[in-house]
Each structure stands twice: as C-alpha cells, then as structure tokens.
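Hi L.,

As promised, TonB-dependent copper receptor:
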Amino acid sequence: MKTFTKAALGAACSLVCVPVAAHANEPNGGAEQDAALADLILVTGKRRTTEMADELAPPPGIALPADTAAIAARIPGGALVGNGALSGQLSYRGLTGERVLGRINGQRFATGGPNAMDPPLHYAPSVLVDRVLVARGVAPVSQGPSLAGATDAQLVQARFAQGSSLEPQAHFAAQYRSVDDSYAVGAMLGLASGDWRLGVIGSREEGEDYDFPGGTAGGTSFERDLYGAHAGYRIGDGEVFLEYRRSETGPTGNPPFALDIVYFDTDFLQGGYTGEVVPNVTLDLRLGHVAVRHLMDNQTTRLPAAPAMMARATFADADTTTAEASLRFGSQASYLQVGGDVELVEKFVTITNPANAAFFIEAQPDLQSDRYGAFVQWRGSAGAARFELGARIDRTEQSAGIPQLGAAIPMGPRPLAAAFAAADRERRATTVDAVARFWAPMGAITPRLTLARKERVPSLLERFGWLPTEASFGLADGNIYVGNLDLEPETALMAEAGFDLAADGFSIRPTVYYRRVDNFIQGVPYDDTVGVVDSPVEMVAAMNGDPTPLRFDNTDAELIGADLDFALRPADRLEIAGTASFVRARRRDIDDDLYRIPPANLRLSAVWSEDRFSFGTELLAASGQGRVSVSNDEQPSDGYAVVGVFGRYRLGEGVMLVAGLENLFDAYYQPHLSGRSRVGASDVPVTERLPGPGRDAWVRMSARF
C-alpha cells in the first residue's frame, strides 16, 4: 500500500487541535472565540497553563515543517496542497485557495505570486509560530469576507509581565532533518514590564532536495529568513501595539510550477489599539501595509535550465493597505459588535526573457481591487442556548490597466492584448454575508448548529488574466488558464451540525456539513471545440504547449462531508487521539466531480507520558481518490498509510529535546493534492505527482523562558 507523511509534518514541542479561545491579554488582543467555535493549534516549547490547555494531554511529537500550512492541515477537515517546501496551501473541507482566508498576526493581505508561491502561511516560519487559530467551519463576519474557514498564524511575541519590574523573555527553537539535510533556527528575545513590552524575532531555514524511496525529488531545496520587532504599551485597560517584519525567501524550488522562486522580499507593518475605552465598551483599531516584491525564473534553481529562447523571469509586485475599526458593547460572553474595514490591493506582473531586453509582456497590468466593508455581530444567550448572529456587506471595485508588450513579443499575444485594452476593464460587486451559529452547553455535551450565506468576489487573476498562462493560484496542474471579465461572485449556502462531548478520559467532536455553491469558479474548456485550435487564445496556448486551455467560469457545486477529532485516556499515562475527515464534492451543472478534492483521511496517535519523558507513535492514512474531475483531466490516486515514532525529554523548566523517525518503513506514496513535477533533472518523472518524503530522522530542541 502506498503511503503518506507530508500532511503529518505538524508542530513543535507542543501541538494539538483543541476547541479553545484566544485570550484578551495576548499580544494584539487575540480574537476572542468561544470553545465551541474555534480550533486552536498550539506550537510552543512550553505547555500553557490556561484553563483550556491544562485539560490537554501531552500531544504527539512531530518533525516541524518549514511550511506552516502543514500544521494547519492537521485540523479536522484539513488537508495539505503540496506545491513546494514553502508554498503549501490549506484545503479545508474541500475548498482551497482564496476561499480560505489566511492571516498573520491578524493581518490580512494579498499574496504576490500569481501562482500562489507565497500563500499567506508562507510568511509564518513554523519555528516562530506560537499558535494557529482556525475558525471552525464558517468564519464569523467580523473576520472579513471568507467563503470557507479562516486561519490566523500568531508568531511568538513578548508578553506583558505580571508586575512593574522588567522581565526578560526568550523563545528558541532549532531543528535538523535528515530527509532533506535541512535546518531551522528561530528565536524571540523580549523585555517587558506590566506596562510595556518590546521584542525582536528572527529565523533562518535552509534545506536541500528531499529524498524519497527510489531517489531524490529535484528542485525542492529552499531557504528563508525573517526578522522583525514588535512593541506594546498599556493605556488603561487597552494596548497600543506596533510591529514590523521583513521576510526574505531566497532561491527555492517549486517543481509543480514552470518557474521557481528567486526571491520574495516582503515587508509587514501593522499597528493599532485594542482595549476597553469605557467599562463594557471595547475599541479595536488596526492599520496595516504589506509590500511584496517577487521574482521567479527557470534559470536560477531549475535543472536543466531552460535554453535562452525559452528563458523566463517574471517580476510580480503586490501592495495591500488595510484599515479596520470596531466597537464591542458588552462582555466577552454577551455583546453587540459593529465595525468596518477597508482593503486596498494593487498588483503588477511582468514576464520577461533575461536574455532579451525587448521581450517583456505585462500579464497583469496595474490590477487594483478596493474593498469597503461593514458588519454587525451579536452574541448572546436564550436560556441554556447561546448564539452568535452576524451580517456584513462589502463593496468591491476592481480594475486593470492596458498591457504593454516588448518589440520581441511574437504576433500571437498582440490581438489578445488589444482586445483586452478595448474591453471594459472595471467591475463592481456588492456582496452580503450572514452567519448564525448556535450552541448549548449541557454539562458534558455541547450541541452545535451553524447556518450561513457567504459570497466571494472573483480574484484579480480569475477576472483579469488576459494572457493564457499556467497562473492558477497554485493548482499546479500544468494546464494553461485564461481569465474571464464576466465572472459573477460565488454564493454559498452552508449548514453544519455536530456536538462536543467531553467526559472523564474521553472527548469527541464530530461535525456533518453541507455547502451549496452557486457560480462556483473553476477552469472549464475554453470553448465547445476542445482540441481544435480555432481561436487566438487557443493559438497562444498551443504555442506554449497546451492546445486545450481552460477558462475560469462560473459553475455550480455542492460539498457534503463529515469530520471529527477525539481523545481517549484508557490509562493515566496513555492517550490515544486522532482526527478523521471525509468530503464528497461534485458539480451540479454537469455530471462531474469537483477538482482536487482530498480523499478520506485518518490520523491516529498513541502517547505514553512519564514525568520528564514521553514516547509515542502516529499513523496517518488516506484512502484512494477515484472521484476526480473528468473535465479537468484529473487523475485518480492510490491510498496510503505511514507510521512515525518519537520521544521527548524535558531537560529543564521550559527546555525540551524531541527526536523521532517519520515514515518509519520508508514507504512510497503520492498524496492526491501534491503538485506534478516539472523538473527534468529529478528522479521524479516529469508530470508525475510528487511523492512524499522517505524515512526521516529528526531532532529538535526548544526553550521558552
């Protein structure tokens, strides 16, 4: 049986998926969530002493992935879309890409890569991640527009001290993995009192091509640096905060794509205020800007390098300016919240040939998307039942400039550019979201019910991608796509029900859900004469090796699924825990399945814990996926299972040493959502799904004071 470990590349010394809230005294305020509404993955070297974390058993020890998306993918309903060591995406209950909101320290932003080489969690090195918050099922309207769930990776920060005296703080994590000869080092140094806090962070990660049973996956090396500073100052019952980070991704392979990362140089700036301005009135203000500068090519790391005629270097910029404000009247348990937010995005993508200065083409010229939103959210109770009701409205205005082409560009793209320049390149849309969530704590059991209507405006790429290219926001399937000016917003009606049961020595949280999506955006054949090159778009696509291009278009879809997590303590020192997920997704407009849907999967672990030492094992398995999209020429995949073992030893207060073996039996497996290799100098044949890593010995040390 073929096997799997990549989605198991989970967390650091303490990692578990539990229903738990962020805390009001966390840096930047921490979005407050009821235990029935949010998943929290802790990634720390020291177990928390909060009421929620005290109820947790020691979690499995797992090699820390460079890609934080692999951590988020451990939640019930989660799966990893593997597009490279630093470019993975979270698939949540069958939806992925821009349908899943991703944030870092509560800040939302547009990615820079047209093929999502830098999805949001790219900017959260796992050695610096403190926790990952995931809204369960449906994100509340206060977090902004989001068709599926929402994630928020919180990086380690200095915290306010308990007293008035200065308190030094430190976090450190370092890891080595044999499968790709990689290392990762991250640290935070802070100084805090009861009134102010100041910290600096930094990390360095580097790895070579990874090994799998049968060879080496060429073009999978990576490197990334991050550094920054943050500060906070208490004003009454609130805090003024400011943070800056610089993320520098160096030459990094992306074998599912035609080009590899040369660099991502990205600056994050965010500041604001959160806290009570008068009793029972909380103000939350936040301003931010993210600037992404990106270069990708097929020369720097790609082997063999493309010949001069086919050499490509693509430059991409993305700038996002955000402003958010809200007032909450009442307590954490019962309140009315009103607020608004603004998100201004500018993007520009230019394709060049580094061997020919006259060869350039503006594939995404002066793209802009301005969104203005407002929301109201009410949380309260009616007898034993609790509820959260919310509604938001957003106005989005999108536009594109006129593409410029160099003198060396052949005739093929020129009529396409002219037609795009002559078209109406401005679009406006008003979207409305509504969410109703109900839960009723009844001692050991808490029933849950969610009903929602969510909308998503087409992305700038889906709407304004006038040039047929492989840019698809990370689908990494080798197909050529072209945009569609006439796309309508997606509209999803959602219902989910489940319960949380927590008894002595046992807990379980099952959920069933249904999502009906009108105007679901997916690649469809460009015209009715598939394979017949009878249009300018097909001619250009055929010149680039694909005579059957796909066009982003509105379809109809539905997704039905179930997932759960559980924990069992059959003995004082033994815990058995796991997650299971299943989703069935199909198109409603034609008889076909949706594209790139994860197969049913299971994670199961057993941990024996002593006072200072623990050891355990983890099994991860997935069934074969035979329900694939025929219209997208998707290929089925085989099932797999993989086993890992680990041990942990507490060296002292806050200091932990962890080591283990992943893929213990060195099994060969190809996760269904892995991209297909485009690298010639690799032991993975071109167009084959990337296999998971082989046997991996790893060791990690972490400390937190």
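The first strand starts at residue 17 and ends at 19.

Thanks again for sending the construct details.

K.
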